[in-house]
């Protein structure tokens, strides 16, 4: 993975969408690796980072990978 290339892409856009399935109540390992390697202290956060994510809209599009009838129904 090219960390600097990925960081430049994040800087370029105002909206970032992470789309992935949920595995065992978490994100897949490749998403976790991307977060760990790209959104690092000193770039994405930290007092000397410039807060590169500040003002950006971050969205999560998560699928559960189950059929509708398997999903717990909530009554409102």
What does this protein look like?
This protein has 76 residues and is of the alpha+beta class. Helices cover 26% and strands 18% of the residues. The protein has helices at residues 3-12, 29-38; strands spanning 15-21, 57-63. The protein has a two-stranded parallel sheet. The longest helix is centred in the N-terminal third of the chain and has 10 residues, at 3-12. The N and C termini lie far apart (44 Å). The model has no long low-confidence stretch (mean pLDDT 88).
Name the descriptors.
elongated; single chain; 76 residues; 2 strands
Question: What's this, in brief?
Answer:
By secondary structure, the protein is an alpha+beta fold. The protein is 26% helix and 18% strand.
Average pLDDT, to the nearest integer? 88
Unreliable runs = none
Identify the overall geometry: elongated
Give the termini separation. Answer: 44 Å
Our Rg estimate from Cα atoms comes to 16 Å
Proportion of beta-strand residues: 15-25%
Q: Percentage of helical residues?
A: 25-40%
Q: Describe the biggest sheet?
A: 2 strands, parallel
Content-based structural category: alpha+beta
How many strands? Answer: 2
H and E order: HEHE
Lateral strand order in the biggest sheet: 1-2
Instruction: Give me the oligomer status.
Output: single chain
Number of helical stretches of at least 4 residues = 2
């Amino acid at each position: 993975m090219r960390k600097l290339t990925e960081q430049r892409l994040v800087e370029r856009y105002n909206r970032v969408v992470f789309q992935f399935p949920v595995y065992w109540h978490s994100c897949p390992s490749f998403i976790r690796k991307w977060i760990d390697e790209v959104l690092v202290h000193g770039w994405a956060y930290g007092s000397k980072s410039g807060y590169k994510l500040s003002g950006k809209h971050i969205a999560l599009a998560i699928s559960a990978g189950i059929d509708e009838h398997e999903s717990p129904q909530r009554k409102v």
